[in-house]
Model the fold of this input.
Amino acid sequence: MSTPILRLEHVTKRFRGLVATNDVSFAVPEGSICSLIGPNGAGKSTIFNLVTGYLAPSEGHIFFGKTRIDGTPTTQLARAGIARCFQIAKPFADLSVRENVRIGALFGRDGARDIAAVTDDALALTGLSDLAGRPAGDMTVGYLRRLELARAIAARPVLLLADEPCAGLNATETEDIVTILRLVRDRGVSVLLVEHDMQAVMRVSDQIFVLDAGALIAAGPPEAIAGDPRVIAAYLGTEAVE
Ligand SMILES: Nc1ncnc2c1ncn2[C@@H]1O[C@H](COP(=O)(O)OP(=O)(O)OP(=O)(O)O)[C@@H](O)[C@H]1O
Ligand SMILES: [Mg+2]
Done:
């Protein structure tokens, strides 16, 4: 088997008394879309913060391909090819959509690149070309979600982490985001998705990792996860029946 693009090994993150991530291990195969799901506060965004270098694990290791990356600064990881979309869209409101996306291109993966061409390509892929000249602050939530993705795509990632890209979107807008994620994956980019919209998760994911209160309680393809009693119990708040 080829080396996974991302591997967590026994990763624990403590915030004083609180264990936000508890001995979590999983691997994202290269070229796949994997999803990290779980109730509010399960530790999903914490894992994104650990993988992108915003936080360092209290214990355990994280590998990007064959390279150990836990504790590596965020800027270095961006240059190595890890890009991220935030749960709360954070555009530069006064800058145009194009300028926002250009920032992703400027601070992205190392190597020769034509910033203007990369920016235009990311705008086109996310369906934002016609809005490129507008201030980002004018965008509706649906377009802001696309802008978050466009900025990350412009960074030419090897691994894209998307934190709730469908939050607050209707069914049509959600479908558009799912389509964009598939297009990104079809270009060979590996995707790790955090998303509460279960229909979207089930449709788009090759593998799903389920967190509850910091611990990984299930992992597998969508059809296995959908019927897993531990997963159902975590979501419904009932005791799991063994
Ligand atoms: N910087 C921090 N300092 C202290 N506690 C934190 C910090 N970041 C997260 N936590 C806590 O860690 C736990 C996991 O939070 P996290 O944001 O990872 O959850 P999540 O799964 O992304 O939830 P949601 O679905 O609501 O976004 C929560 O109890 C949260 O309050
Ligand atoms: Mg979160």
About this structure: Residues 171-186 form the longest helix (16 residues). The chain has one domain: 6-236.
